[in-house]
Design a protein that fits this description.
The chain has a twelve-stranded mixed β-sheet with strand order 1-2-3-4-5-12-6-11-10-9-8-7. Strand 3 (about 60-65) and strand 4 (about 70-75) form a beta hairpin. About 35% of the residues lie in helices and about 30% in strands. By secondary structure, it is of the alpha+beta class.
Length: about 280
């Protein structure tokens, strides 16, 4: 890739990059306001990225600090055979890991990068019905501390299983994320917590954030307890998420899933939740 050169005027690249990212979100079913909101998130820090071209396409790269590690990020790559140049640039700027965000499902040059996580979404049914035999109630404030401890442990385990962070780094990320999303704990505005019951037992819980993005409820957790899995409750929990979305006045439900959880990904495929973004990474 000896013909690559860093560009100063990035206007042509930026216009094309924005349109490609927006097209990916639209194709996944995002409304125009939601696609625009997703673009703003995807383009965070764009002015600090380095953009290069060989005349046939573009590469955009950058580095950030993440939990004490220097991480390279390949934000855009349309140059044939350009991955090697991008990885070499990241390594030359101290990166110990390289990450890529893929919008719209075209894995392309990064098929051998392990999946670390996905963002998924679908429009909720207009009048979703709760599954027969399943009831849903609000979690009580007395139940919240026990729920929080279980959620934190599960979240840390998911991060470690995805393969991106050590247990110590995962714990630090968990502390940071919970503090950011639930600054007032059980009373944080816009957040709702649910208990799902069947045959007189609590078989799982849910945690959602209404108005997370335009028209979107974000499902932080729809958890079926391990001893109740394999009984069809996983699919039922997704219906609860759609029900909660409409209860909060939103139209679409969105959530993240960690890499390494193929069972969950299979469930989401079968229930029509499209992949908005896929995050992949490798160690250098």
């Amino acid at each position: 890739m000896g013909g690559m050169g860093i560009v100063d005027d990035r206007s042509q690249w930026r216009a094309g990059f924005e349109e490609r990212v927006l097209a990916g979100y639209r194709a996944a079913g995002c409304s125009e306001p939601l696609a625009r909101a997703m673009w703003e998130r995807a383009a965070k820090g764009i002015d600090d990225w380095t953009v290069a071209t060989d005349g046939t396409g573009w590469i955009a790269v950058g580095v950030t600090e993440d939990n004490g590690a220097t991480v390279g990020r390949i934000h855009d790559l349309t140059v044939p055979e350009g991955r090697e140049w991008a990885e070499r640039w990241c390594a030359g700027h101290g990166a110990q890991r390289v990450e890529v965000r893929i919008t719209g499902g075209a894995v392309g040059a990064f098929a051998d990068y392990p999946v670390r996580g996905q963002s998924r979404m679908r429009v909720a049914a207009e009048r979703p019905d709760l599954p027969t035999g399943l009831t849903v109630r609000r979690l009580t404030q007395e139940e919240y501390p026990g729920w929080y401890a279980g959620e934190e442990a599960e979240y840390i385990a998911d991060i470690v299983r995805a393969g991106a962070l050590t247990p110590e780094q995962a714990k630090a990320k968990s502390d940071e994320d919970f503090a950011r999303h639930l600054p007032q704990g059980f009373l944080t505005p816009g957040h709702a917590f649910y208990a799902m019951e069947a045959d007189g037992q609590v078989i799982g819980t849910g945690w959602v954030n209404h108005g997370f993005l335009p028209g979107v409820t974000f499902g932080f957790s729809l958890e079926v307890y391990e001893e109740h899995r394999g009984k069809g409750y996983g699919r039922a929990a997704m219906a609860v998420g759609e029900w909660a979305t409409r209860q909060g006045g939103d139209e679409a439900m969105m959530f993240n899933v960690f890499g390494g959880n193929e069972v969950a990904m299979g469930l989401y495929d079968s229930t029509g939740f499209a992949v908005l973004d896929e995050h992949r990474s490798i160690e250098l």
